[in-house]
Amino acid sequence: MPGKEPPPLLHMMQRLIAEPSVSSVSPAWDQPNVRVIDLLAEWLQGMGFEVRKLAVPDHPGKFNLIASLGSGPDGLVLSGHTDTVPFDESRWRSDPFTLTKKDNRLYGLGSTDMKGFFALVLEALRGLDLSPLKHPLVILATADEESSMSGARALAESGQSLGRHAVIGEPTGLRPIRMHKGIAMECIRITGRSGHSSNPALGNNALEGMNLVLTEIMQWRQELGERYTNPLFEVAVPTVNLGHIHGGDNPNRICGQCELHIDIRPLPGMNLENLRGELDMRLARVLQSTGLELERQSMFGGVPALETPASAEIVHTAEQLSGYAAEAVAFGTEGPFLQQMGMDTVILGPGSIDQAHQPDEFMSMDQIRPGIAIIQQLIQRFCLT
Ligand SMILES: [Zn+2]
């Protein structure tokens, strides 16, 4: 299928936003992203890119897109995700799937997080002469960033190499980010034996075991904070949040089972697998003589922390082009997966993270021109000279 020349900027944004592509761990919300991928594929093909549409294994209807111009070991990857978060229509003042221009803002689900970025990239490409390309340029569009990160995870597992330098256009107000914390969510389940409350010997109380677990986790959190600290982060220590608990059924029954969900946010340099192993060891130790059964499951694969060295060329360039020193942020991205594929990765994109995941999400129109200019200069620097 030959591609078509992309339509004007705001039409592109409108078309991308009009295709619903919610991703969610809740099956009731989760949608395919294939129509967004197909649109981008058509436009990029129309601009001479070679496009590959890759199905994400075990996730029907979910695709990644790799569009490349030129080949070689070096080069620049401009990356974004095609999915959006779920939305609460009753809290939107306009239709989330219609790009609505008002007060110098472009409203729509995904306008800033982050379908708008792709429209800006295409607009930036239209304004460049790419015929003297010296290093490859890759536009990467992923699936499921907002839920399981299955798209980026599958790419990292495929072991292919896409380029040396990467920019992920998540909304950062066009300021470069080179560090973020990781995320793990763990489910801890304790199983004992229920029985009548009048005689403790009739059962084995899972809630009492959970009490030991909670105390141990808070102690562990304290120790992690003493072992690891990074002043570049607003919250300088790793965090462990006790987020959800459920156990037992009645005051007059011994609690037979209790389940706890926690969220762990490690700093760069902390390894998710090692943390899980440490947690397992500590919890097994405190429950050792209780006779209670302990299980721990990761609620998703987790996202490692990201740290791209301050000395990386992409960091320097992004700092120079944006006029800001690279920072550390609290949200996770697909950056660690791109890093696993050998790319030095910076997060830098138009729009504000404050508007992401909110009703009436918008991209401020004053981000458009500077956003396009930075994208063009990145391509100039890494692919044309
Ligand atoms: Zn995003």
From TrEMBL:
It comes from the Bacteria. Its cofactor is Zn(2+). Pfam families: M20_dimer, Peptidase_M20. It is found in: Cytoplasm. Keywords: Amino-acid biosynthesis, Arginine biosynthesis, Cobalt, Cytoplasm, Hydrolase, Metal-binding, Zinc. InterPro entries: AcOrn-deacetyl, ArgE/DapE_CS, Bact_exopeptidase_dim_dom, Peptidase_M20, Peptidase_M20_dimer, Peptidase_M20A. Signal peptide: none annotated. PROSITE patterns: ARGE_DAPE_CPG2_2. One of its GO terms (molecular function) is metal ion binding. Residues 179-284 form the Peptidase M20 dimerisation domain. Gene3D superfamilies: 3.30.70.360, Zn peptidases. Its main location: cytoplasm. GO terms for biological process: L-arginine biosynthetic process. Its EC number is 3.5.1.16. One of its GO terms (cellular component) is cytoplasm. Belongs to the peptidase M20A family. ArgE subfamily. This is Acetylornithine deacetylase. It comes from Thiolapillus brandeum.
